[in-house]
Amino acid sequence: MDILKDKIRKEGIVLSDQVLKVDAFLNHQIDPRLMKEIGHAFAERYRGDGVTKIVTIEASGIAPAVMAGLELGVPVIFARKFQSLTLKNDLLISKVFSFTKQTESTIAISAKHLSADDHVLVVDDFLANGHAAKALIDLIGQAGSSIAGLGIVIEKSFQDGRTLLEGEGYRVESLARVKSLADGQVTFLD
Ligand code: 5GP
Fold it and tell me: Which residues are recorded as binding xanthine (predicted)?
């Protein structure tokens, strides 16, 4: 997706050869026009696949997921990372190891929003080693729902996430595939 790659080149900050900061348009300040294009791009890839719900994880997955949900005409559920007074009963719970925080946390969604009739698109901002995606897949599996595939805004292809997910038979669609962050430079796969 060229406009996304341009945005990453212009506004992305390489924090290390492992971590890219995109808080100018995705992770803190959000560029709504770009999110709209991202939602459209995900919808183009999964239209006609019978997606009934989108599942993402708070906070940075929400903006691209909502735009994809708008385009596909389906609801969006975000897994919560923190205990909430309003999220108590019938919780689906999984553990996720955070790449950026290097800590394990618990994520949850309410069971009432997913059923065995649902065919789910998983959306997230980044794919690194696939821990967040695997935790979301686990939650969706607990509900008995099936998975249409994953929609990732920025994939770091030098990490193991895609290999892991494809190895388990999941379809992975990434809008920007970063080949390397070496020497402070972002280079893309294609
Ligand atoms: P994974 O679970 O695939 O190892 O990592 C993906 C999750 O970690 C994403 O939900 C994202 O929030 C965070 N993440 C991974 N790599 C990066 C990165 O380079 N930059 C930012 N901003 N977040 C990342």
Answer: 20, 27, 156
Atom of ligand 1 nearest to the CA of 130: 3
Question: What is the distance in A from the centroid of ligand 1 to the CA of 77?
Answer: 19
Domain that holds residue 67: 34-180
Beta bridge partners of 53: 120
Protein residue closest via CA to atom 9 of ligand 1:
126
Nearest atom of ligand 1 to the alpha carbon of 128: 3
**CA–CA distance, 78 with 116 (Å, rounded to integer):** 18
pTM above 0.70, yes or no: yes
Query: What is the average pLDDT score of the chain?
Result: 96
- 13 forms bridges with which residues in the sheet? 21
The per-residue pLDDT for range 98-110, each reduced to its tens digit, is 888 888 999 999 9
Per residue in 114-166, pLDDT (tens digit) is: 999 999 999 999 999 999 999 999 999 999 999 999 999 999 999 999 999 99
Residue 102: give its domain's CATH number.
3.40.50.2020
Domains contained in the chain, number:
1
Query: Which pLDDT value is given to residue 49?
Result: 98
Q: Considering just the CA atoms, what is the radius of gyration of the chain in Å?
A: 16
Please, which residues have CB within 8 angstroms of residue 114's CB and are 6 or more apart in sequence? 53, 55, 77, 92, 120, 139, 140, 143, 144, 145
Q: Per the domain annotation, does 3 fall within a domain?
A: no
Decide if 83 contacts 105 (C-beta within 8 A). Answer: no
